[in-house]
Amino acid sequence: MNKLLIVGPAWVGDMVMAQCLFKLIKQRQPDTQIDVLAPAWSLPLLARMPEVKNAIVMPLGHGQLDLKTRYRLGKQLRVAHYDQAMVLPNSFKSALVLWFARIPRRTGWRGEMRWGVLNDIRYLDKKRYPLMIERFMALALDKNEKLPANYPLPELQISAASQQEALTNHHLTSPTHPVLALCPGAEFGPAKRWPEEYYAAVANAKLQEGWDVWLFGSPKDQETTNKIMQLTQNRCVNLSGKTSLAEAVDLLSLSTCVVSNDSGLMHIAAALRKPLVAVYGPTSPTFTPPLHDAAKILQLSLECQPCFQRECPLKHQRCMRDLLPQQVLTAMQQVV
């Protein structure tokens, strides 16, 4: 049995997309044991990926160096006797634990000049691998090997028991009406957020048709979801900031359709195989699209797009404001 340690990404959406790599490894070598070193918040995602044997908590946050802690962790990992490691982040420090762990083969993109700490260095051709998932999956192949014709896509596994527990924890019952899940937040910054009054207009239209509407997000999104609640006469279920990540995943799995900005929850919805309308503004779906056939991407083609800025540098946010609620409602009809 081949034992493999993978250093996972630091963002929700990236961790979801990393499942493409896990699935490809299992397709090629079914007896490989995959362990993932990852932030504690990601454990609920990894628990819903059957390809992952063990999730190991990375005790340091994004951007922290702390060489002593990295050395101590690497030394602890030596007893696992991993045959190979792969590192998905591109930072120098993200590869140090693998070096400290003395794992014989350490694979990753060159990134921040990681000669020495990695001994199976790959040189990224962005034209050959335009998608993030392609860059992840290429690490499982020999250097000149082609990717498979059909990509294995993320698919989170949900149990009825965990769904029921999440419902009970939030005083909900199993849906008897269609459920629209709205995900109006975006950790990246305000430029990626479709206006809350537009989300409210979509919610009001579906409430009028007899749908239930659930609002999802982190504590940082509560101001936005509170405004949506005001604009819908408090007829939605506001779960923003109230659920754990595990509960958000399980409750999203009960939805009929999801409308989301380009965010981690968008990628989770796609991995749950939910009909999805994804609203893109300053970012581009050519790098990290929702990986699901029943996903409809809405994006304008303004001269300033994509700018990849956290705040609109032109102060008008037309890439989002010119995408109107009726366009989202029409897209919903196409995917549901």
- Summed over residues and divided by their number, the pLDDT gives a mean of 95
The radius of gyration is 21 Å
CATH top level class name of the largest domain: Alpha Beta
* Class inferred from helices and paired strands: alpha/beta
SSE series: EHHEHEHEHEEHHEHEHEHEHEEHH
CATH architecture of the largest domain: 3-Layer(aba) Sandwich
CATH topology of the largest domain: Rossmann fold
Sheet with most strands: 6 strands, parallel
Number of domains: 2
Terminal Cα span: 43 Å
Strand order of the largest sheet: 3-2-1-4-5-6
Strand content is 15-25%
Backbone shape:
globular
Range of helix content: 25-40%
Number of strand segments: 12
Task: Describe the protein.
This protein is an alpha/beta fold and 336 residues long. The chain has two domains: 3-138, Rossmann fold (3-Layer(aba) Sandwich); 160-335, Rossmann fold (3-Layer(aba) Sandwich). It has 13 helices and twelve strands. Strand 8 (212-215), helix 9 (222-231) and strand 9 form a beta-alpha-beta unit. The longest helix is centred in the middle third of the chain and has 13 residues, at 196-208. It is globular. The mean pLDDT is 95.
